[in-house]
């Protein structure tokens, strides 16, 4: 094998047969890297699994189906726990319906290999069937508390160095039941885990993925007035569904200054005002969060 960085790609599928050819091809044709793709299907009923089983490619591995996950996060957690990464330099996550730009993986290698960063994420270009496109540029200037309230970007852009991924893998194995049964957003969870354990994360402003938008997206691009409402609703639901309480328990952060104040809402509101701008990377999103706090929604 050529002396190129070796990537393990974790790809989850559910009723994605209409998109898979484009996505798989965009991964296999990545420039200046070697890739293996591991695919876990969540009991699709559109022929996706049967299609995958017919693929003859030595770089593609189809996992046997287990009990139904009903959630991409659970499927990804299963893959993180079960797949051996011993021969890989990096591990990346993939959705079934996007299109990767040909330099996506090599760009992450250049950054991670020449720095003390352990994790990478990047900007995307949302696109719709009607031809509409919208660039979603991420602010790479991380804030002190941003990992408490948001991910580092779409999980389909995540790339993690082997040593950091080993830590992630062991952590999930050691806390399997509570993570598997309570965490609904895997990318936010991974970002939180890495940040709270001092793994440095690089957020790239460069666009590396075509981010397909359709009715089956779990999250999506969240733009415009409807997008603002959707972001607020998602933030409210994530927080009120006890994600932060689960994070606190999983990561044993009972005495962390953030959680000491978060448990008493009036103290947290003062804490938020004193540290305004340190909770979301986007200034507008900080304001949205402030509104939710003022009205006692979160």
Structural overview:
The chain has helices spanning 17-28, 48-53, 72-82, 104-113, 162-174, 176-182, 186-196, 224-240, 243-250, 257-262, 265-274, 283-294; strands at 6-13, 34-41, 60-62, 90-94, 99-100, 119-127, 133-136, 159-161, 201-212. It is globular. It starts with 5 loop residues before the first strand and ends with a helix. Helices cover 41% and strands 18% of the residues. It has 2 domains: 6-217, Spore Coat Polysaccharide Biosynthesis Protein SpsA, Chain A, CATH 3.90.550; 226-294, no CATH class. It is α/β, with parallel strands linked by helices and 298 residues long. It is built from 12 helices and 9 strands. Strands 1, 2, 3, 4, 5, 6, 7, 8 and 9 form a 9-stranded mixed beta sheet that branches.
Summarize the structure.
With 298 residues, this protein is α/β, with parallel strands linked by helices. Helices cover 41% and strands 18% of the residues.
List the SSEs and their pairings.
Layout: E1 6-13, H1 17-28, E2 34-41, H2 48-53, E3 60-62, H3 72-82, E4 90-94, E5 99-100, H4 104-113, E6 119-127, E7 133-136, E8 159-161, H5 162-174, H6 176-182, H7 186-196, E9 201-212, H8 224-240, H9 243-250, H10 257-262, H11 265-274, H12 283-294
Parallel strand pairs: 1-2, 1-4, 2-3, 6-9
Antiparallel strand pairs: 4-8, 5-9, 6-7, 6-8
